[in-house]
Amino acid sequence: MKNYSRQREAILNVLRSTDTHPTASRIYEMVQQSLPNISLGTVYRNLSALSKSGEILSLDVGDGFEHFDGDISSHAHLHCRSCGCITDMPLKGELIFSAVQEYGFSPDTLSCVVYGICKDCNQN
Amino acid sequence: MKNYSRQREAILNVLRSTDTHPTASRIYEMVQQSLPNISLGTVYRNLSALSKSGEILSLDVGDGFEHFDGDISSHAHLHCRSCGCITDMPLKGELIFSAVQEYGFSPDTLSCVVYGICKDCNQN
DNA sequence: GTATCTGCAAATCATTTGCATTCTG
DNA sequence: CAGAATGCAAATGATTTGCAGATAC
To answer: Considering chain B, what is the average pLDDT of its residues?
Structure first.
């Protein structure tokens, strides 16, 4: 909470004030509003560090981009094949975690992505 | 089942006779044993077509490689952070699917990846 | 002053694609 | 022969990295 550079702080703020699961370059654009001189490389480096330390989540939905999530609570992601949006849904991981342990596997994170068509796209 | 090229057939065979969730280049190596002149581009093209038509599954565990799975039945994947292996675990998707529908979301596929340490790595 | 982080630009590398050729029917 | 698929090699593009200068303590 203290040793953070201005840049890392700004990236965290952006991620914690949205639920849109932005990509690195989207985050870059957003952070540029407060830090116009930040570089894309710095964004990548900090996202990687934050993800490794568990402060944010990295999410791969198979669209060729890595997405990031400031919400580390247990939830599933609904990825719309039509508009590409990613929305959250609460999900109790305990059930899956306990099943996993019967395989001798020690779980630490769960990433659950449901593919389909979102509410908005269904109505059009 | 009939209009398949020799190459596509070989790729399908490789995928259906393993549970190791290989990457494109690993599949390339394996298929070369029966078709030494196959090219990597062809492997990618066929994997993409087979995945689009639903005959195989594409799996992203966030290690920078796309993995492929010849088993399209409902199951979760356990990805070991230590050795990188990916093992299967049966998973009933119905529960998650019905929860998803309450969000107005029409699901078609579920991809559940559990990250952690596998049995073998735990013992070393 | 040392260790860490940054901006910049070049490098990396999995994946995609253009094109001439080969296969299939 | 036409249409589809292939092999090859070059292109693409998200992500990573080297390095010299800035920043923090």
So the answer is: 92
The parent domain of residue B118 ranges over 75-123
Write the single-letter amino acid at B8: R
Contacts of residue B71, Cβ cutoff 8 Å, sequence gap at least 6: B19, B57, B88
* Residues B59 and B95 reside in one and the same domain: no
B41 and B91 in a single domain? The answer is no
From the CA of A37, how many Å to the C1' of D23?
A: 15
Q: Which residues from chain A sit within 8 angstroms of residue B107, using beta carbons?
A: 78, 114-116
Q: Provide the whole-model pTM.
A: 0.91
What is the predicted pLDDT for the residue at B3? 65
Whether A1 is in a domain gets the answer no
CB pairs under 8 A between A and B: 112
Q: Which of B62, B78, B112 sits opposite A112 (nearest CB)?
A: B112
Q: Which amino acid is at A19?
A: D
In chain A, the residue whose alpha carbon lies closest to the alpha carbon of B111 is A113
- Residue A116 within any structural domain of the chain: yes
Q: What is residue B85's DSSP assignment?
A: -
Per-residue pLDDT reduced to its tens digit, B50-94:
999 999 999 999 999 999 999 999 899 999 999 999 999 998 888
A82 shares a domain with A45: no
**Cβ A80 vs Cβ B92: under 8 Å:** no
Output the furthest CA–CA distance in chain B (Å, rounded): 51
In a domain, A90, yes or no: yes
Confidence check: pLDDT of A1 > 60? no
Indicate if B11 and B65 belong to the same structural domain. Answer: yes
